[in-house]
């Protein structure tokens, strides 16, 4: 049974004049774990646990869930990407299976499989109707990096000879499908663990530069868990220490030069561990929302100051539909929210 809950917050942060109304509505409380979400025109597509995907139909206010026939029932789909005609979901573990789903018929097609004891894919994005990319943890000494140029019908894995090297213990976290960001011709990938770095290509992956960040690093569960870029220059990375989720220093940093240099913001204040961070559309890169282990937070000044919108710790990922409306999901819930 679907449960509906509406919360309205009028929040003012004094000197910073952070005043905003925040309204949330629980669209579904179905038992699920979801870290992959895409807001389409009339649907919100979801990649889930237990070998499932689904979509929320905005017109009928209904959630539909399907089980993929060609995967094991313990499969988790934590990456999702969408074209005009198809939805793509990518499993995290071994074997990694990439499924193409026809939007009109919901027909499923297995378009890529990879078997390796270390295989673990984290994020996937399409640039246009033909070109898409996916990235994951290393099976050798570089990120796993997939590409397609035929609309997702076939995928190729890039050789480590053409990619930057990772150090032992450096990888990525599949928390919200935000380890891989594409803006214009620029591709940005982020790492965590023993090092927290940003990998930048300005030519669709033909060449790469690697830049350090001040995000906490050195342990298995530290580093960058999420990133977003407003355009090719303005970006934010966030994360922290998953095992110490209240730790709020060296866990958020911003760039204005395409990821070359980074500066920590709101050190020892605002949120701790973050699983997903997103720029508000049409905000000139000033407004940002973050979700994670210490709640939902909002900034209107490029991350310098933050206010807490909600203390819900079960939001894993979210995306905006507009500069006011967005959808979030996580543990046993799908939520529509609005900034006013």
| Gross geometry | globular
CATH fold-level assignment: Methylamine Dehydrogenase, Chain H
Number of strands: 31
Main pleated-sheet profile: 5 strands, antiparallel
- Percentage of β-strand residues: over 45%
Fraction in helix: under 10%
Q: Could you state the CATH homologous superfamily?
A: YVTN repeat-like/Quinoprotein amine dehydrogenase
CA-based gyration radius = 19 Å
**Tell me, what is the CATH class?**
Mainly Beta
Q: What oligomeric state best describes the polypeptide chains here? A: single chain
The number of helical runs is 0
- Based on helices, strands and strand pairing, what is the structural class? mainly beta
Determine the N-to-C terminus distance. 29 Å
Identify low-pLDDT runs: 1-16
- Order the strands across the largest sheet as they lie in space: 1-2-31-30-29
The figure for the number of domains is: 1
State the gist of this model.
With 340 residues, this protein is an all-beta fold.
Description of the molecule:
By secondary structure, the chain is mainly β. It has a single domain (6-339), classed as Methylamine Dehydrogenase, Chain H (7 Propeller), CATH 2.130.10. The protein has strands at residues 6-11, 20-28, 34-39, 43-48, 52-57, 62-67, 77-82, 86-91, 96-102, 108-114, 121-126, 132-136, 144-148, 156-157, 170-171, 180-183, 186-190, 192-193, 197-201, 209-212, 222-229, 235-241, 252-255, 263-264, 274-279, 288-292, 296-299, 307-310, 315-320, 325-330, 334-339. The protein has a 5-stranded antiparallel sheet with strand order 1-2-31-30-29, with no helix packed on it. It has a 4-stranded antiparallel sheet with strand order 3-4-5-6, with no helix packed on it. Strand 13 (144-148) and strand 14 (156-157) form a beta hairpin. The radius of gyration is 19 Å and the shape is globular. It starts with 5 loop residues before the first strand and ends with a strand. The relative contact order is 0.13. Mean pLDDT is 94; it is low at 1-16.
């Amino acid at each position: 049974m679907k449960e509906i809950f509406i919360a309205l917050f009028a929040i003012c942060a004094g000197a910073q004049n952070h005043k905003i109304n925040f309204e949330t509505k629980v669209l579904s409380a179905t038992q699920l774990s979801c870290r992959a979400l895409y807001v389409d025109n009339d649907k919100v597509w979801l990649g889930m646990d237990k070998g499932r995907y689904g979509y929320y139909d905005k017109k009928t206010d209904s959630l539909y869930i399907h089980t993929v026939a060609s995967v094991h029932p313990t499969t988790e789909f934590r990456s999702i990407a969408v074209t005009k005609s198809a939805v793509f979901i990518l499993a995290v573990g071994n074997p990694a299976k990439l499924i193409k789903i026809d939007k009109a018929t919901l027909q499923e097609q297995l378009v890529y499989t990879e078997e390796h004891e270390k295989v673990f894919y984290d994020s996937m994005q399409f640039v246009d109707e033909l070109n898409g990319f996916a990235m994951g943890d290393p099976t050798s000494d570089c990120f796993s990096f997939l590409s397609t140029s035929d609309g997702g019908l076939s995928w190729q894995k890039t050789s480590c000879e053409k990619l930057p090297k990772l150090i032992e213990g450096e990888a990525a976290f599949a928390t919200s499908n935000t380890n891989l960001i594409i803006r214009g011709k620029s591709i940005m990938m982020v790492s965590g663990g023993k090092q927290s770095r940003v990998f930048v290509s300005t030519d669709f992956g033909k060449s790469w530069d690697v830049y350090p960040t001040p995000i906490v690093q050195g342990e298995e569960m530290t580093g960058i868990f999420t990133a977003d870029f407003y355009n090719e220059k303005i970006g934010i990375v966030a994360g922290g220490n998953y095992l110490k989720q209240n730790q709020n220093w060296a866990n958020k940093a911003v760039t204005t030069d395409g990821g070359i240099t980074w500066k920590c913001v709101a050190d020892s204040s605002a949120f701790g561990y973050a699983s997903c961070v997103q720029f508000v559309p049409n905000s000139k890169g000033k407004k940002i929302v973050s979700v994670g282990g210490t709640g939902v937070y909002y900034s209107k000044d490029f991350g310098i100051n933050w206010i807490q919108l909600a203390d819900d710790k079960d939001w894993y990922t979210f995306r905006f539909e507009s500069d006011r409306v967005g959808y979030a999901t996580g543990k046993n819930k799908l939520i529509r929210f609005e900034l006013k």
